[in-house]
Amino acid sequence: MTSDTDRYRDNYTDEINAAFLYRVAAELEEDETIAGVYVRLAETEERHAALWAEQLERAGAGVPSKEPDLRSRTLAWLARRMGPGVLAQVMASTEMSGRTVYDDQPETEGTSLRADERSHAVVLDALRKDTSGVKGGVLARLEGRHRAVGGNALRAAVLGANDGLVSNTSLVMGVAGAAFSATAVLLSGLAGLLAGAVSMALGEWLSVQSSRELHLAQIESERQEIMMMPEAEAEELALIYQAKGMPQDQAERAAKEVMKDPDAFLDTKVREELGIDPEDLGGSAWEAAIASFFLFAAGAVIPVIPFFFLTGTSAVLWSLGLAAIGLFLLGAATALVTGTDVAKTGLRSLSLGLLAAGVTYGIGSLLGTTVGG
Question: What is the pTM of this model?
Fold first, then answer.
């Protein structure tokens, strides 16, 4: 079990290394606004290091050297030859993975360390969007994520229908391969449709509802942080504005202006820092569940249709033919969303779906022969 002294020492070393890398990034960054962000991040990490140094001194332990470790020096060497974007990428990953590292450490209670770590993760996530710092179209790309919802919804619709089509085609072919009657295949296909659609709907409901609850908890946490440390939160918002390309003085004025209205301050922090729309919270769980049910069912019903009217080999062939058309069209629709080659993606979807159907048909045939024999 790690002792408190070892934990203090590890925290101190991590903060020293982070401050060093931020100083290097500031030194290399050509954009003065972005360099200023790195400097302020470094200063925050140095304050954190001082806190852990004080804890070590109270425990009667020696404070380690302020020299960065080999990994940090190596990263600095690479950055001096490849640009500060290297550090932005590495530090973004480090800050994201360590954003909750102080949440269960009692020494940070009542300090800004926990909020600072979350803030750094947000700022570095913006900085890493451009490998040369935050310049040009980074702000547009950040804000553009919200405008891509339509494409995401279409992709989700296509994938939902594709899941239903592939899974139920495989089920229908497996039962047909076992030489069961058309009625048995039809009942199995309808059962698979309902079971899959209900399962997908339930999973989607749980996913969206859990996401909403998480967002609400994050909003409440942000509200508490604003109440306890309004100045620190305003400074954090100013840093986020700077990371998006706003000059420091303008960013600070904007943050102070927003701070005057508590509701607007919370709304802005939630949108800018957490990327959450308080008015949406990921949408309705019921709407998502219903949509998921019908999308899965729309795909799953395709291979079942022929068995309402036909029997034997003709029903199987028609089922396979309709499924093949559906697989290609859904693959092509996916390509339209993702920007890939329509024919290539459609044929890939077709080949993989038919492969799955062929495997289950073969297994069904084998089992039917074994049972029948």
Answer: 0.49
